[in-house]
Amino acid sequence: MSSNAHQHNSMREDQRSEIQVGEFRIRAISGGQYWIDGGTIFGVVPKTLWQKFYEPDAENRILQETNCFLIETDTQNILLDTGYGTKLPEKFRTHHRIEQGNWLIENLKQIQVSPESIDVVILSHLHFDHAGGCTRFNSNNELQPTFPHARYVVNHLEWDIANSQLPELKGSYNPDDFSILEKSGQLQLVEDREVILPGISVRETGGHSVGHQSILIESGDQGALFAGDVCATAAHQQMAWCMSYDVNLLQTRRMKTELLKLVTQNQWWLLFDHDPFCPALQLGE
Question: Are 146 and 115 in contact (CB under 8 A)?
């Protein structure tokens, strides 16, 4: 896709649902699909270009996936992002063609992974399509953490901005997605380059949101990068292809260039949070 990189392998094209990065097994788990205006996903890029990759429907919407990634070690289950969950209002679901169901939990169940067995949830940021699955309503209509035994890892700047209630951020964050995590004692706020557990660290990128972070997975001489919304699909590998939602477009371009260079030089896997056809590519020079 990009001028300085080419793919070696693709997770879905070669029919593999998982990749191995040293000691880590990584699987893409759908947190649900939705349809959204193509222009919002590709910003200044003309429709004549982006529609070659993602065909829009009659209302100019394109299919998007919420790829959450399950990382398994011998002792722990780590989940990257949580999809949009089950709390979205009917009108919103209709507009975005979202079907009923707890997709993340159902898809985890298919591979014999229960919510109780998730040890760590690392969030790239707190927008609805990444953090919505953090919580759910129980049978008494009380909000509860979806993963009762997990620590939820959030960048401290992201936490502050998501809870700021600034009028210009109206609609950007839904407090029900994450507000109870502090009360339940499961919230872990982190800084740039913090190690979450051996081999897994976060990189504060900003750009898309104030405290957006990408996640690095390293084991031996192998690695993978979950870029989050800094590089949401395979098409976004090109520097100028960014979302119109980005709060700091130049920062997104800057960090994407830096991270893709790291991935390409080391022949790592690049994990895409929104690509419905290709959740991961292995890049190489």
Answer: yes
SS3 283: strand
Q: How far apart are CA 16 and CA 158, in angstroms?
A: 33
State the amino acid at position 132 in one-letter form.
G
- Whether residue 232 contacts residue 34, with contact meaning beta carbons closer than 8 Å, is answered with no
The predicted pLDDT at position 231 comes to 98
Quick check: 127 pLDDT over 80?
yes
Cα 200 to Cα 110, 145, 219, distances in angstroms = 25, 23, 9
Number of neighbouring beta carbons within 10 Å of residue 197:
15
Q: What percent of the chain has pLDDT over 90?
A: 89
Q: What are phi and psi of 228, to 5 degrees?
A: 65, -145
C-alpha 275/C-alpha 118 separation (Å) is 24
Region 215-237: mean pLDDT is 97
Q: How far is CA 147 from CA 15, 78, 197, in A?
A: 29, 11, 18
Rounded CA separation 206/255 (Å): 8
What single string gives the DSSP state of each residue in 56-108? --TTSEEEEEEEEEEEE-SS-EEEE---STT---HHHHHHTTPPSS-HHHHHH
DSSP 8-state class, residue 150:
P
- Distance between CA atoms of residues 218 and 267, nearest Å: 12
Beta bridge partner(s), residue 27: 18, 70
Residue 284: the pLDDT is 83
Residue 78: half-sphere exposure toward Cβ, Cα within 13 Å = 22
Structure tokens at 187: 């919230």
CA atoms of 111 and 6, how far apart (whole Å): 31
Residue with token string 């976060």: 202
User: 145 has which bridge partners?
Assistant: 135
pTM: predicted TM-score of the whole model, two decimal places: 0.94
Query: Within 13 A of 85's CA, how many CA atoms are on the CB side?
Result: 28
